[in-house]
Specification:
A hairpin with a 6-residue loop joins strand 1 and strand 2. The strands form two sheets. A two-stranded antiparallel ribbon has the order 1-2. Strands 3-4 form a two-stranded antiparallel sheet. Helix 16 runs parallel beside helix 18. The relative contact order is 0.08. It is globular, with a radius of gyration of 26 Å. 46% of the residues lie in helices and 3% in strands. It starts with 5 loop residues before the first strand and ends with a helix. It folds into three domains: 208 residues, no CATH class; 88 residues, lambda repressor-like DNA-binding domains (434 Repressor (Amino-terminal Domain), Orthogonal Bundle); 106 residues, no CATH class. It is mainly alpha-helical.
């Protein structure tokens, strides 16, 4: 029978019983709905891959890519390592993965696991919204493992201004405590609580620290945005924000924008972009304004605005900008000659390392030397791909050796036996190239 529900006839009662339509993937319930621990979409994706006992990257490249060809084009390491972080944001990747996840799991309205409800407020590029690397509270992860729960990363951990865990009074971490490396947003192994490099747990107990009151308020405000972003009665759009600012300037500063900005610690003309040029506020600007007015972000977009009688000065900046390096024209020629010499050298260095050695930034090199920048980047990527193929070849050969060793002991090289030995060397048959090597080794006599 066609339609959203399939009906079958029960043989005993001869009554029609409806059967929900089957989904391609398990429809797991997101963790912490309606609380500050509300799970992110990336976290749910990794948990889903773990439930299917496959690599998250394999799930995205094969299953998601088959359902939506646009996702199939994202099956490359740079996306999994860094670009996938925007899946929790407000851009096209967030919309794409929400649609794919809803289609594959049959679970509707998953946009609340991202920041998509704020798309009409923040700049289109999501300026200052998301952290550059995955971050976590090691105590929260330790507690999840202690209780036997699957590892889940709350959405608030992805948001840049949210830098501490108020519950455990410790700062969020973005580097493995064992190897000091940052983590990819979509790992190969389906567990966000395990380091993707050294395979050791990211959990741990940290001593409580006295967090600044301002930092605690920021955490509370970000959690407010996540928990209440889909509440009925909220009109989360830029026009609502602009009218709120105009109303507050009129009520608190009698229409004097310069005095209003001075009381908050803003630039004298800090409101002109919002009120005259239709420039959208970044999340840091929104939070700074809300702190000065002593309101929560969602109150700005509610049916009725709170009454504000006084302003308070920001105790510090939410985000410090690095000074842009100023290099006079004369040394640029020497820099260009140095880049050309590097192209003739045998070693292929990453552009970030080259820029750091010169005391510059990647953006500076990309702006002033676009040709050399493009060639150096292309060369380094080619070297990385070559090293990756060589590394995978050695790993595949090791799988064949392990299968041979097990057969030499007159045992069957089952997947479990092989995996047990490979795990000691930091490998797993969940990696597609190793699994293919395993299948090939089984066919050998």
């Amino acid at each position: 029978m066609n339609g959203p529900w399939n009906f079958s006839l029960d043989e005993d009662s001869q009554a029609a019983v409806y059967i929900p339509p089957r989904s391609v993937l398990f429809s797991l319930s997101p963790v912490g709905i309606g609380t500050p621990q509300q799970e992110s979409l990336l976290s749910l994706l990794v948990r889903t891959s773990r439930a299917h006992a496959v690599s998250p990257r394999h799930l995205v490249g094969k299953v998601f890519g088959k359902a939506m060809p646009a996702i199939g084009k994202l099956d490359y390491s740079t996306f999994y390592r860094s670009l996938a972080g925007t899946v929790n944001g407000i851009g096209q990747y967030a919309e794409l993965f929400v649609s794919a996840m809803e289609y594959l799991t049959g679970r509707p309205s998953l946009d609340y696991l991202t920041m998509l409800p704020w798309k009409k407020v923040f700049p289109h590029n999501g300026q200052g919204l998301l952290a550059r690397h995955p971050r976590w509270c090691p105590v929260c992860l330790y507690r999840q493992r202690l209780l036997g729960e699957a590892t889940s990363f709350p959405l608030v951990w992805s948001i840049e201004p949210y830098r501490a865990c108020p519950e455990h009074a410790c700062l969020l971490e973005d580097r493995c405590p064992h190897c000091s490396k940052t983590q990819p947003y979509l790992p190969r192994y389906p567990d966000l609580g395990i380091c993707s490099h050294c395979r050791k747990p990211l959990t741990g107990i940290r001593p409580s620290a006295a967090l600044p009151e301002f930092q605690l308020w920021v955490c509370k405000a970000v959690a407010d945005m996540v928990v209440h972003q889909l509440d009925a009665g909220l009109s989360i759009c830029f026009d609502r924000f602009r009218r709120f600012v105009e109303k507050q300037v009129s009520m608190v500063a009698e229409g004097n924008k310069a005095a209003f900005c001075k009381a908050l610690g803003f630039h004298d003309r800090g409101l002109n972009g919002w009120l005259r040029k239709d420039e959208r506020p970044s999340i840091t600007h929104l939070l700074s304004l809300c702190y000065g007015l002593n309101v929560m972000p969602t109150e700005v977009f509610g049916a009725s605005w709170p009454q504000t009688t006084a302003l308070r000065l920001l105790p510090g900046r939410l985000k410090d900008r690095k000074a842009c390096p100023r290099v006079p024209p004369e040394p640029r020629q020497k820099t260009q000659e140095h880049l050309i010499a590097l192209l003739d050298a045998n070693d292929a260095l990453p552009v970030s390392e080259i820029a750091a050695n010169l005391g510059l930034t990647r953006s500076y090199l990309r702006y002033w030397f676009p040709e050399q920048y493009a060639r150096l980047t292309k060369r380094f990527k080619a070297a990385v791909r070559a090293r990756s193929r060589e590394h995978q070849g050695r790993q595949s050969s090791r799988v064949v050796e392990v299968v041979g060793q097990i057969r030499a002991n007159k045992e069957y090289p089952s997947r479990r036996r092989v995996n047990r030995l490979l795990h000691k060397e930091g490998m797993s048959l969940a990696q597609p190239h190793l699994f293919q090597a395993y299948l090939g080794a089984l066919k050998q006599s």
